[in-house]
Amino acid sequence: MEQVPTSVLSPEPCHLGEGPTYDVTTDTAWWFDIREGRLFEAQLGSGEIRVHALGRMASALGRVDAERQLIVAEDGLYIRQIADGAMTLLCPLEADNPATRSNDARVHQSGTFWIGTMGRKAEPGAGAIYAFHRGKISMLFPRISIPNSICFSPDGAIGYFADTARAVLYTVPLNPATGLPRAEPEVLLRHTGIGGLDGSVCDAEGQIWNACWGAGRIDIYSPQGERLRSLHVPARQASCPAFVGPDLSRLLVTSAWQDMDAAARVADPQAGRTFLLEASARGRAEPDVKLA
């Protein structure tokens, strides 16, 4: 496992850090503490960090435009005004099922937003992966236990997602113009050994950067599923990466202290912190989500 230059972006521990993304137009990183209903905002140039209370569990966002974000929350999709944080429900998502919440999500180059849901206690098969496409939500893949690793190849022709509970990363061909599947998913790789497949992001070359939950590392895979490198993360429960910075050359990694007792937290003192790794790679700017 490689040791790369690493710094702490935010020392504030997240119960369940997730959903990092980066707005290259404002040099701002965003991420969530799902369990505590908090949204973190970090101005990378100045180092200023703000924490916003959302009043509900939320897990991901997509930039709509300079004024608005689309927030993926436990009961639906909300438009959030960046200036004052005001949130307005756009459409419900499994709002009639209190046993589930949102989890991993990412915006496709077409503006379509892939969104995962899961059981609040990770009940087997309780979740699904949806597409928010041109103002409508449709189910793509049902009976998912823990949806993770949603990301897309640079040309938008391939989608990836994992079911952490099954230890499987899937690949699926997409229509690059819509971000919607053209065929059924196939198994790309089966994870073995310590840890599990958590959040992922693709770099500019199409390699898949996966946070290995429980193993304190980022694994980099080829599009064929071959593990190429592993980078150390100074918290055991690394949860999701995102490329950040004006040249998209640094890797923001969230983490969590979820399910750790007092002894485990003492043994893992940086659990829940948010890190910056010098990635020696280049990411891609996250696309805006299209509402209609």
Automatic annotation (TrEMBL):
<dbReference type="InterPro" id="IPR005511">
    <property type="entry name" value="SMP-30"/>
</dbReference>
<dbReference type="GO" id="GO:0005509">
    <property type="term" value="F:calcium ion binding"/>
</dbReference>
<feature type="domain" description="SMP-30/Gluconolactonase/LRE-like region">
    <location>
        <begin position="16"/>
        <end position="256"/>
    </location>
</feature>
<dbReference type="InterPro" id="IPR013658">
    <property type="entry name" value="SGL"/>
</dbReference>
<feature type="binding site">
    <location>
        <position position="18"/>
    </location>
    <ligand>
        <name>a divalent metal cation</name>
    </ligand>
</feature>
<dbReference type="GO" id="GO:0004341">
    <property type="term" value="F:gluconolactonase activity"/>
</dbReference>
<comment type="similarity">
    <text>Belongs to the SMP-30/CGR1 family.</text>
</comment>
<dbReference type="InterPro" id="IPR011042">
    <property type="entry name" value="6-blade_b-propeller_TolB-like"/>
</dbReference>
<dbReference type="Pfam" id="PF08450">
    <property type="entry name" value="SGL"/>
</dbReference>
<feature type="active site" description="Proton donor/acceptor">
    <location>
        <position position="198"/>
    </location>
</feature>
<feature type="binding site">
    <location>
        <position position="198"/>
    </location>
    <ligand>
        <name>a divalent metal cation</name>
    </ligand>
</feature>
<feature type="binding site">
    <location>
        <position position="101"/>
    </location>
    <ligand>
        <name>substrate</name>
    </ligand>
</feature>
<feature type="binding site">
    <location>
        <position position="148"/>
    </location>
    <ligand>
        <name>a divalent metal cation</name>
    </ligand>
</feature>
<dbReference type="GO" id="GO:0019853">
    <property type="term" value="P:L-ascorbic acid biosynthetic process"/>
</dbReference>
<keyword id="KW-0862">Zinc</keyword>
<keyword id="KW-0479">Metal-binding</keyword>
<protein>
    <submittedName>
        <fullName>Gluconolaconase</fullName>
    </submittedName>
</protein>
<feature type="binding site">
    <location>
        <position position="103"/>
    </location>
    <ligand>
        <name>substrate</name>
    </ligand>
</feature>
